[in-house]
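User: Structure tokens for both sequences below?

Assistant:
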Amino acid sequence: MTPPQRRRRHPKEQPPPEPVAKGGPKQGEQKNPERLYILTGATAGGERAPIDLVTLIVTSADPPPTATPEQSALLRLCRAPLSVAEISAYLSLPFGVVTVLLTELLAAELVQARAPIVREAVPDRSLLEAVMHGLQKL
């Protein structure tokens, strides 16, 4: 009995990329800047929360029915703590737009902002064990 013959799958042909004229959009730039203005709305010029790229964001509630699609995506994404830089990358939105969205969600108490854990601020495990053994001997 002979084993079945395997056939190679050929990838589907993709159309060639569209040529970009000189001075056109560069890598990482949005093609539609009006969309970013619509996302941030009238609050873009207002007061922003003190958030930087390493601030950890975690969701404290489910997305309300009145949330925009971007806010809902952000709330679903942040069920586990994520940095603002990661959120910006996952949502493909600039840092400034993510900051405005987070400011609105912080004001509505739908997310919590936490400072990142600095490795040096965590006590050494051997020191904690030595203290624990010393207390047990008392």
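Moving on to the next sequence.
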Amino acid sequence: MALFRFRTRNPERDLQTDKARFERLNDLLNEFRSEIEQEKAGLKGRYERIMADAAFSQQALEDERGDSAISQRIDGMTETMKRYAARLATLDEQLAFAAGLSKNVNEFTSMNSVENNELHAAVHASE
């Protein structure tokens, strides 16, 4: 008769395991977003400084207080600003992606919450 005996996992233990797993996933996504935000803040500061420097250099060039070296410097700053702007756009895309993932995780966990699992178990037990 031992052939027909089997043990099932404790549903409460399963729910706790699932909860811990999704908490880790949310923590990881929060860390991911935080890293992106930190990079974005640093890059945005550098972008604003180089923009101001380029504006002053351009003004000096227009006021004929500069030479060809300033013109080359402005060209270099313009290229740097383009790279910074592209990177900022990429970081915004990454943030939007992470927000979408967080939304999916939250929707999934709320649809599969303890209450829903208990309801699901009760429905299947009555079948």
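User: Anything stand out in the second?

Assistant: The first helix runs from residue 11 to 62.
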